[in-house]
Amino acid sequence: MGMNMNRMMKQAQKMQREMARIQQEIEAKTVTGTAGGGAVSVTANGKLELLAVEIQPEVVDPDDVEMLQDLVLAAANEAIRQAQDMMAQAMARFTGGLKLPGF
User: Fold this and answer.
1) According to CATH, what is the number of the domain 2-94?
2) Which residues, other chains included, contact 86 with Cβ-Cβ below 8 Å and sequence gap of 6+?
3) Distance, CA of 70 to CA of 56 (rounded, Å)
4) Every domain of the chain and the residues it spans
């Protein structure tokens, strides 16, 4: 019984290390969400932090600020969705499709 427990602990520690490595890889990756046919793009990382916003000059219309705000919001939400999907896919590969709470 003691050997099985030691083996399980070693496996759990190995899984923790692997999970930490995968998480670091994900956090270093970036994704870009766009809106308005690429007129606005937002880049985020795997930590769900927004890193950059790019706006094409032709969509800057002082008479229609609301449209620009909507485009920025849509691009940011798309970038966050992509980052979440990237994380979910990496975790699914790690867990081998197991249904673990929180993943």
Assistant:
1) 3.30.1310.10
2) 26, 29, 31, 46
3) 14
4) 2-94
Locus of tokens 């867990």: 95
Place of tokens 């002082």: 62
Secondary structure class of 36 (helix, strand, coil): coil
Q: Which residues contact 30 (CB under 8 A, 6 or more apart)?
A: 43, 44, 45, 46, 51
In three-state secondary structure terms, 30 is: strand
Tokens describing residue 93: 């590969």
Is the full-model pTM beyond 0.70? yes
Report pLDDT digits (tens) over 8-25.
Answer: 888 889 888 988 888 898
